[in-house]
Amino acid sequence: MAHPQETFSRTSFPSSSFISRRRQVVYENTLLYQLNVLKTTGRYEAFKLEWHPTYDDKPNVWPVPNHLFWDSDVAKWIEGACYFLQWRNNAEIDAAVKELVEMIRSAQQPDGYLNIHFTVVEPAKRFTNLRDLHELYNAGHLIEAALAHSQHYQNDLLMEPILKYVDLLYKTFGPGPEQKHGYPGHPEIELALLRLYTKTKDPRHYAFGRYFIEERGNPKGQYGHHYYDVESEARGESSNERPVYLPASQSYWYQQAHVPIVDQHTIEGHSVRAMYLLTAVADLVRMEGTDVSNPKLDALHRLWSNMVDKKMYLTGGIGAMKQWEGFGIDYFLPSGTDEGGCYAETCAAIGVMMLAERLLQLELDRKYADILELCFYNAVMTGMSVHGTQFTYVNQLASSESDLSKRAEWFTCACCPPNVTRLLGYIGGYLWTSNLVDQRLAINVHMYSSAKLAIPIGDSTVEIEQKSNWPWEGKIQFALRNTSAAPTTIRLRIPGWATQWKISPAPSSTELVNGYLTLSPEWLQANPSFELDIPLQPRYISPHPYTNQDIIALARGPLVYCLEDVDNPWVNDHFKGLVLDPAGTINEIPASIPGAEEPYIGLTALNAASFVKTDSGQSPHRPPEYITIESTEEVKELHFIPYALRDNRGGRGQMRVGIRRKH
Ligand code: FUB
Ligand code: ZN
Questions:
Q1: Domain Non-reducing end beta-L-arabinofuranosidase-like GH127 C-terminal, which positions (predicted)?
Q2: What's the average model confidence in pLDDT over 572-587?
């Protein structure tokens, strides 16, 4: 079973593209920048297990110590570094990985335990609070780091201590009478264990990942009670003593642990946790087989649809609720803090990409790939500045005075920045998937860019190269070189938003199956070079009417656009009062960000702006005439920039994606 974290190494980026330029920035700037932050904040040396002054800090969110995920920050950086080192060596990064691995090895306790906080700060409290304290989450990230490390270095220097730690965990947790019937409050180890199994083929790793998934939400898991209740009682906590992210006692929907996964009907709670969990569930389904009816697959379908149809922002972001960093009720998708909330954490969108890719592997359907691409180009790429040294955690669709559209150099809870790093390290694995069955090869192309895929078959190789200026231009040149005897089929995703497309030379059938066009081995033998043209034109998109937001946003291809004060300096209300006439003309304007490599296409709406005006009226029963729409001569042009590129040119941090629609 293939995962993008392994298959990415078959993809190279011989010519320049949006993706290759982002990768170059991460390789040149981000990795070293983040390494420096790891060092200056104490994370780098934390596996030396010495006391750090920050360990005395009062938690920002009780009971979660601020440094609790340092293990995962380091692990994600190692993982990302190993992906990039496979591509191109860098002595400083290589040396840092090696030193970190030595420190991790030396931090392992004689029984295999491996965790910074519970070794240095609270050794007596190991495994006493799985609900809140992230031991298993950190372990999962260490496993993923070890997988990337062994893939790159071809040694077991990191894998060895990690396997020893997994052995300890395997002994500690499970269905046995002497074992804890627990599972992590923050899923991550499940997907890591299932990936580990594909490498080790150790059935315990499979069983362990499966156990965590299936035990989750068991109302009678431990001594006839929910595991988290038993755990908190053992800690002597009263039922009203709970973290702020649990709105009521036992609101275990926050951790997707209110009921077993197969009984969950709507996507709830913390959005990153939900995505990591469902990613693992999809892997488990893939391992169990989809030929028989599988209630886990039904759950995946239900939860995916609920999320995409009712709980996803125009940008692909998920999570409206700041309190629990996650989903609100259906259709609750306000654009910003002062409009009801908007969270859309970068990691959550990365999680959607992971889940979408797993679902694509289960069933080839562009509905998954469309969302994968939407998230990548908007909700994820907006998380890092063009220079790769500033990041966002929360990605609102509208700024406010309390939450300006501004990136930060780092965060106390720093999950997002290294997550973007590692994602760009293995992004090649998301562009396409392939499978070889009975010596017949199928390549499914999900995302367009400039990239080359090389698949070894015996002593020969099948190579497919795509060349394009995606997402700025929609023409993609393909070349297939097949020196093997394996007949090869290519399936091309035609995005759901594409109203026109053309392939030349034209195949005899252009029928789409689930949004993919199939090019047969025979056709490809006659036409190893061909061109797909998906014209990219500005279009309007809007959220579901049940969101009660009569707004429109501009999109072009996979990119969603926003307004910023830098281009529209007259703004003083975060574009709240702006009204946009969809009948206005939209011009495409080539532009660039000073000092950055990324040229982009800006959009300008001409004579489309007017403003809401309110007369004095009796509150709250105002007559409809109280609101009028006024045109203004002064704002003839509205300038839009891709949301992914916001906050790269200074400004006051005023930004908005969805604008009130003029009727
Ligand atoms: O808890 C670990 C990570 O930090 C989560 O995934 C993020 O939401 C942030 O809370
Ligand atoms: Zn995050």
A1: 543-657
A2: 97
Alpha carbon of 411 to ligand 1 centroid (Å): 11
Residue nearest to atom 10 of ligand 1 (CA): 413
Q: Is the CB of 347 under 6 A from ligand 1?
A: yes
pLDDT attached to residue 597: 79
CA 85/CA 81 separation, integer angstroms: 6
At residue 656, does pLDDT exceed 80?
A: yes
Residue 270 CA: which ligand is closest? 1
Beta partners for 600?
A: 591
Separation in Å, CA 331 to CA 3, 334, 466, 547:
32, 9, 38, 5
438-533, what's its fold? Answer: Maltose phosphorylase, domain 3 (2.60.420)
Residues 6 or more apart whose CB falls under 8 angstroms from that of 310 comprise 330, 331, 544, 546
Average pLDDT score over residue span 12-22: 97
pTM over 0.90: yes
* Start and end residues for every CATH 2.60.420 domain found in the chain: 438-533
| Three-state SS letters, 262-311 | HHCCCCCCEHHHHHHHHHHHHHHHHHHCCCCCCHHHHHHHHHHHHHHHHC
Question: Do 4 and 430 form a contact (C-beta atoms < 8 A)?
Answer: yes
565: number of Cβ within 10 Å: 21
Q: Which ligand is nearest to the CA of 72?
A: 1
The model's pLDDT over 285-338, given as tens digits with 9 standing for 90+, comes to: 999 987 778 999 999 999 999 999 999 999 999 999 999 999 999 999 999 999
Question: Could you tell me if the CB of 73 is within 6 A of ligand 1?
Answer: no
Secondary element (H or E) of residue 205: helix 203-215
The pLDDT value given to residue 623: 82
> Do residues 344 and 379 lie in contact, with contact meaning Cβ atoms separated by under 8 Å?
yes
For 435-450, the pLDDT digits (tens) are 999 999 999 999 999 9
